[in-house]
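[audit] Reproducing an earlier prediction to check determinism. Same input, same settings, fresh worker. If the tokens differ from the archived copy the diff job will pick it up downstream; this log only records the rerun itself.
[audit] input (438 residues):
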Amino acid sequence: MSYRYPIRLSWKIFLILFSLGLMVSLTGYVVIKRNRVHHLTIAAGSKQGESYIFSQAMAQVVAKYNPKIQIKVLETKGSKANIILLEEKKVQLATAQADIPALPSARIVSKLFPDMFQLVVQANSGINQVSDLKGKRIGLPPEGDGQYLSFLFVAEHYGLKKTDFFGLAVSEKETDEAFRKNKVDAVFRVRPPGNKSILDLVQNRGGRLVPIEQAEAMKIKEPTLDADFIPKGTYQGSPAIPATDLPTVAVPRILLADQKVDYKLIQEITSILYERRRDLAALIPEASYISPPSVLSGTILPIHPGAQAYYDREKPSFLQENADWLGLLLSIAVVIGSWALQLKSQLEKKQKNQGDNYNQEILVLMKHIECCKDLARLEQIRHQLFSTFESVVNALDYDQITPESFQSFTFTWEAAIAAFRDRRSTLMAQPTPISKSQ
């Protein structure tokens, strides 16, 4: 006994300390999780581009309304590079042109703004349509960039090969400088209307915008493209530049996220994008174009679960959406249930009545046993008892009586058998009458 008490006490102390440690650990985990700052990186293109400016604005507004989400903006070479960085898990978010094929890890969060194919040419270049670019010097974005690939797509549509023109594929700044020095005849960009670089080329460098037609035909090969136009006066009101609504091709600029980024983080970022759009638009006007992705617009990438959760926030639940049909089905079910209960009640009543009838038969036989004075007659009553028992067993098998009725009958039948045995013993004990002939 002197050893058990300390052992029991030590186990109690251990359990108390273990419980306290577990509580402290769980509390610390919850506190740390709630106060954890999430750091994300977004691949955003060149610093001169709207994607980079938009990403900076988004990072600023997200941090303002949710300081626990900090977004670092990374300068890159463009859409294709952004998608590769996202696939390699070097960034968690990325902007990209919708016509650049995404890799398996990419999930769309939102459409940001429309990019438009814009072709600016020297005033005396003789270029009036895309096919006139044959033999000309063209300032292009760096090779591999989404804009560069878009130009090759347009050129191919118009029957131009890479050997049909001289492409100067350098940075935007270098391309603009080449245009100012007449080292290139044209510059191709995929940018929103009102882009500052294009504004400078057409207002101050003698540049002229050329239409890019046949967008609907291009859409057959690339569903993400749309027919659109650069509105009259986009780059200058008087005289208007362009002088009329200028046909061109538009493609959405989209926000992508890695599929493994916590859906709650993406849901919160999506919420801020839409509910704080005014704050974003104050920093970059293109934010007013933000819209949910749509299969109808050719955006066929899977939507990130976090973004989908935000888009479905006001979507009626299955019960709400099908309330009328569910109400009708419920009413039908109630009626059928009522009928079923009524039928069950009638069946149980019938079963009970049948069981009562068998009990009544046994009670009648018991009265016959009590009055019986002949062993031969008593034997007939015994046969009736067993015949009735057999009928009751069959009735139970065919659900004509309930198990409760069978138990009640068994009790009555055993009482009748006991009465039979007593009566038979009494009759057998009586002396046999002597015949008169003796």
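[audit] rerun output stored. Observation attached for the diff report: The longest strand covers residues 106-122.
[audit] end
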